[in-house]
Design brief:
The protein has an eight-stranded mixed sheet with strand order 3-2-1-4-5-7-6-8, with helices on both faces. It has helices at about 5-35, 50-60, 75-85, 125-135, 150-155, 160-170; strands spanning about 40-45, 65-70, 90-95, 110-115, 135-145, 175-180, 185-195, 200. It has six helices and eight strands, in the order αβαβαββαβααβββ. The longest helix has 29 residues, at about 5-35. It has one domain: Rossmann fold, CATH 3.40.50.150. By secondary structure, the chain is of the alpha/beta class.
Length: about 200
């Protein structure tokens, strides 16, 4: 019988933690670039989970900026509030989301993003329309998800095809400005803009 020692288990745990931290740094840097995040911007995260990415974005927009962080689940909302308090970030507003609405104020945001959330949406068209209403003219929307036919998708039976996301967002009135891969197995990102005619590019 093969037995793993306590020292080996600790080493594995430390390695996994370091890799996860590095991956998070990479994701934050990529999101900062795609959304042109800077001091004073107002940004929203849809389906923020534990709130770790909300915290990182709030640090980047600074005290003169604002971040709206939304979630459906009551436990997750508490997680976000706790993360925000621990990080001492008064520029974050936590909102309870709806099945068909983000509950963002009209035209409040310069940018909106969702990470591994879209495939969970029960009413994607309604949520996209709500995001469109919450964005200012020229505001950007980044949707990060994973392919249903990739390794993660086959294991979890989740994910959403990139072309499906593009079709749905375009039908609402968003214009595709960028499409590319995202850190993580089989992950991609698509970026849209509200109301501005721009050339499309591949990341």
């Amino acid at each position: 019988m093969f037995v793993i020692s306590g020292t080996v288990l600790i080493a594995i745990a430390v390695t996994v933690s370091l890799l996860a931290h590095r991956s998070r740094r990479t994701e934050v840097s990529r999101l900062t670039e795609l959304l042109s995040l800077r001091q004073g911007m107002t940004v929203a995260e849809i389906g923020a989970g534990t709130g770790w990415l909300t915290v990182e974005v709030a640090r980047r927009v600074g005290q003169s900026g604002r971040v709206y962080s939304t979630e459906l689940n009551a436990d997750r909302l508490n997680d976000i509030r706790r993360a925000v308090v621990e990080a001492q970030l008064p520029n974050v507003t936590v909102l309870e989301a709806g099945e068909q609405a983000t509950h963002l104020p009209p035209e409040c945001c310069d940018a909106v993003f969702m990470r591994r959330v879209y495939h969970h949406l029960t009413a994607p068209a309604a949520i996209l329309a709500s995001i469109h209403e919450g964005l200012r003219l020229g505001g950007r929307l980044a949707i990060i998800d994973f392919r249903p036919d990739g390794l993660v998708g086959r294991i979890t039976r989740m994910g959403v095809d990139r072309s499906e996301v593009i079709r749905a967002a375009s039908a609402i009135g968003f214009e595709l400005v960028a499409s590319g891969e995202w850190p993580g197995v089989d992950h991609y990102v698509v970026v849209f803009r509200k109301g501005v005619d721009v050339g499309r590019r591949t990341l």
